[in-house]
Amino acid sequence: MAKISVVSVRSLLIRMMFRETELAVGTAFIMSRADGAPFLVTNRHNVTGRDSNDQPISPTGGLPDHLSVAFVGEKPGTWRSEDIDLYDEDNRPIWREHALMGSEYDVVAIPLQAIEGVRFYPYEWNGGQQVMVAPGDTVSVVGFPFGKPAGGLFPIWATGFMASEPDIDPDDQPKMYIDCRSRPGQSGSPVVAYRSGSYSEAGGGFAIMAGNSSAIRLIGIYCGRINKESDLGIVWKLQVVRDVVGFGCRPITPLKP
């Protein structure tokens, strides 16, 4: 069987649904909390169905009530679609968001339970190997532009470059900019630094890998472009994802009518 990168089974195609109507498509991934509890991570605008101006994203005006998620099956190269509710029986959102900043950070996490016939491939709590990332270095947005897969339901790797200093927070927010031709459907994609053969470490060292091994570092989550006329994309940093998945979560007020 062909060798498949673990990154390619970590990105999941999601469909935002209202009852039986598909409103939009996007991307999600799984991260396990420090205690091992798995969470489905994606953008807040994917689950609310609203843009930053609080307007419905779908041209139908509809807002999602559940996600249809294409999880990886137990056998390699198979997938299983499962519905994930966004609201509980009291009409309260199930997802969690940042404890302090709430809707200002476009990241949410949905608690997951084990699903029969599904295998989880979560990102590590620390993001993986500490690959050094600097302005001009290559990074990949691994997701589903316009809902398009790269064969089966494997994601497409859209590769671009770091466009800002990783240690600086634009607008005093924990985010970064990348120069990458990303498109709708990639919202919620993991952004990774993927290196094979050898790589520079964030702490200043240098690592050489044996055989066909590779180094993978999750650096954040993609949430869209700075505007429709630009290829500059916004990436919320890994720490935001960890804050939301970890204990930095709070209950939120209902948004659904």
Structure commentary:
The chain is mostly beta strands and 257 residues long. The longest helix is centred in the last third of the chain and has 8 residues, at 238-245. It is built from 2 helices and 16 strands. The chain folds into 2 domains: 6-122 and 242-250, Thrombin, subunit H (Beta Barrel), CATH 2.40.10; 138-237, Thrombin, subunit H, CATH 2.40.10. Strand 4 (66-72) and strand 5 form a beta hairpin. The chain is globular and about 45 Å long. Helices cover 5% and strands 37% of the residues. The protein has a 6-stranded antiparallel β-sheet. It has a 6-stranded antiparallel beta barrel with strand order 8-9-10-15-14-11. The protein has helices spanning 44-48, 238-245; strands at 12-18, 21-32, 38-42, 66-72, 79-85, 97-98, 108-111, 138-143, 156-162, 175-179, 190-196, 198-200, 206-208, 214-225, 232-237, 249-250.
How would you classify the helix and strand content by structural class? mainly beta
Q: Uncertain runs with pLDDT below 50, 5 residues or more?
A: 206-211, 249-257
Distance between the termini: 49 Å
The CATH topology of the largest domain corresponds to Thrombin, subunit H
Question: What's the helix count?
Answer: 2
Task: Describe the SSE topology.
Layout: E1 12-18, E2 21-32, E3 38-42, H1 44-48, E4 66-72, E5 79-85, E6 97-98, E7 108-111, E8 138-143, E9 156-162, E10 175-179, E11 190-196, E12 198-200, E13 206-208, E14 214-225, E15 232-237, H2 238-245, E16 249-250
Antiparallel strand pairs: 1-2, 1-4, 2-3, 3-7, 4-5, 6-16, 8-9, 8-11, 9-10, 10-15, 11-14, 12-13, 14-15
